[in-house]
Amino acid sequence: MTLSKHRIIQNVLSLSALQGSTYVISFLTIPYLVRVLGPEKFGLIAFAQALIQYFVIFTDYGFNFSASRSISKMRADMENVRDIFWTVITIKIIMTCIALLLLCALIFLIPFFKSERAIYFYTFGTVIGSVLFPVWFFQGVEDMKFITIFNIVTKLSATACIFIFIKYQEDYNIVPIINSIGQIVGGFSALIFAWNRFDLTYRPPTLNFIINQLKEGWHIFTSMIISTLYTSSNTIIIGILTNNTIVGYYSAAEKLIMAVTGLINPVCQAVYPHISFLVGKSKEQAIAFLSKLAYLTGIVTFFISIGLLILASSIVRLVLGDQFEASISVVKVLSFLPFIIGLSGLTGVITMFNFSMESLFSKVLLTRGILNVILAFALIPLYKQNGLAVSILITEIFTTSTIFYLLERRGVHIFANKYRMQLQ
Fold it and tell me: pTM for the whole thing?
């Protein structure tokens, strides 16, 4: 086995361990929180997390892909790596300050957000934790085992605190505090570790470097922000059109589905730098690798989706409890998301970005967002949480189908028996 393949497998295993721990922790904390807090307060916390996710994506600026790609290409030259590292950190700090100002304006200028403003400020700590945690750096050097350890320790500590401090419904405001402190401590620890292990001596970023990194990440940033406007806006829209209880029914079901769907993320994150390397070496080899991965992902996620559909009632009653009977139908509607999103995850960012189709992918996501918003506003007033679930399912089918169609048009035949690319 070559060093490259060994590193990919190690990174997939590390990220799988991280996602697996997230999966286990979610199924420990979600049943506890939904029972203690009830649908209304659980829905409020989910609404705040959806709002703050906009700022997380804003400060990430797509660096998990663009910066990791730059570092992957230049990791033999530590001078350049240091420049990239401190440039990205500087940009993220500036963006955090801007995000905080935007949050303050939102809360104090719009009455809808003012009544629970403390929850939004407490939840904002997750933005700071995300900024501090240099996931993009470890992805670039293709060494993920260390951030896996930091993440698991952080999540376990936060989980223990939730069981210790959250006893009554009135404790709902403590939940975002625990989550924020955990992420900040984990992020800071990982940053210090990276600094020491890789000798990342501080180098003041030049204006040219800042501009270059912003340009590198622009298409990915616009794609991610459009994607987040789609995903997080669902919770925002249903919260505005209905109430926190309905948000609770939807969000609890969505978290179950996303916990399963998230199992695909380690593969996508780990192979992205390797695909970048293969494309530079041989586009045919990259397509061959992607094809094998797509077949494997499709088969595994299809059976996962079938299992979710069949066991939806049992899973909801076991994990969420009797208060969340209304979530069963949502889980059934969304049960095929692991299969659909698993394929679009590989063919979207992983394939289209590495084959220089960033602008095209951004247009797909923009269309997806517009379609989903139209469907959500049309269906939520009629069918509440089930209407939103149907909107998401239709939108995801449209997105994945469109991506495959566009790749075929550009000569990238992921499922072809012969792996040839014929650029048009």
Answer: 0.75
